[in-house]
Design a protein that fits this description.
It is a single chain. By secondary structure, the protein is mainly alpha-helical. It folds into 2 domains: 161 residues, Cation efflux protein transmembrane domain (Alpha-lytic protease prodomain-like, Up-down Bundle); 75 residues, Alpha-Beta Plaits, CATH 3.30.70.1350. Helix content is 61%, strand content 12%. It is built from 7 helices and 3 strands; from the N terminus they run H-H-H-H-H-H-E-E-H-E.
Length: 259
């Protein structure tokens, strides 16, 4: 019951953080944040998932201690409180369902509330087992199940907040750029997430020998290929003449500058 209560508390806090971050993300760009504040939601999601992973580890530690030294549990209190929590979790999940389709943060909050509801069901089962059969160790076993689920869910979702952007294949993008007629090569490619639904790209494209007069047309063709093929809308490209391209460049990223 304590594990489920802590999980419910963490999800309540994650909901507050998610909605605050969503509000911040709607602010327009300014002199300080020239790309805008859209990444606030991604940062909030990363904080939420990291906190949940640490919480799951702590609950596993507590469950193991309870296996070694079992504690008395009031079965009826467990069932009553878990039933109340189940109703709250179900209502909260329904309230966040629509927004969960649009935002990584709200989706995380929705999934957490669904997980809370399932955890409350597990706690009710544990409380019933204690009432009927006096199975005290089932309390620790359920704690392990809840903690394992929290860690599994958080680890599976945190990649979307760490990888930037998570759904784009860098190799496929490089191949698409090189396939545009008039492009001899591409290097110094950077991909990043300006906000959850707006990935950005910048890079250098080398114009093929003899095609410099069509450099602007080639650049437009590359941008069109990236928009149509990968949904990229914020694209910055530097064109380089075949004879004066960067020497020994990195395909992705930049070389570190010696200090």
């Amino acid at each position: 019951m304590i594990a489920d209560a802590i999980h419910n508390l963490s999800d309540a806090l994650s909901l507050v953080l998610a909605f605050v971050a969503r509000k911040i993300a709607q602010r327009p760009a300014d002199d300080t944040m020239t790309f805008g504040y859209g990444r606030a939601e991604i940062v909030a999601a990363l904080i939420n998932y990291t906190t949940l992973i640490l919480l799951g580890v702590y609950l596993i530690y507590e469950a193991i201690l309870r296996f070694v030294t079992p504690a008395d549990v009031d079965g009826w209190m467990v069932v009553i409180i878990a039933a109340f929590a189940l109703v709250v979790d179900a209502v909260t999940a329904m309230l966040t369902y629509a927004l969960s389709k649009q935002s990584m943060n709200i989706r995380a909050a929705f999934l957490h509330n669904v997980a809370d509801a399932l955890g409350s069901v597990a706690v009710i089962v544990a409380g019933t087992a204690i009432i009927l059969y006096d199975w005290r160790l089932i309390d620790s076993a359920i704690t392990l199940l809840i903690a394992s689920y929290i860690i599994w869910q958080s680890v599976s979702e945190i990649g979307g907040a760490i990888r930037s952007p998570p759904d784009l294949d860098t190799r496929a993008i490089l191949s698409a750029i090189r396939s545009v007629e008039g492009v001899a090569d591409v290097h110094h490619l950077h991909l990043w997430q300006m906000q959850e639904h707006q990935p950005a790209l910048d890079g250098h494209i080398v114009i093929a020998q003899g095609a410099w007069g069509d450099a602007d047309t080639i650049k437009r063709a590359v941008k069109t290929a990236l928009r149509d093929g990968f949904g990229l809308s914020h694209i910055t490209l530097e064109t380089e003449c075949h004879a004066h391209a960067c020497r020994d460049p990195l395909e992705v990223g930049h070389k570190a500058v010696a200090r």
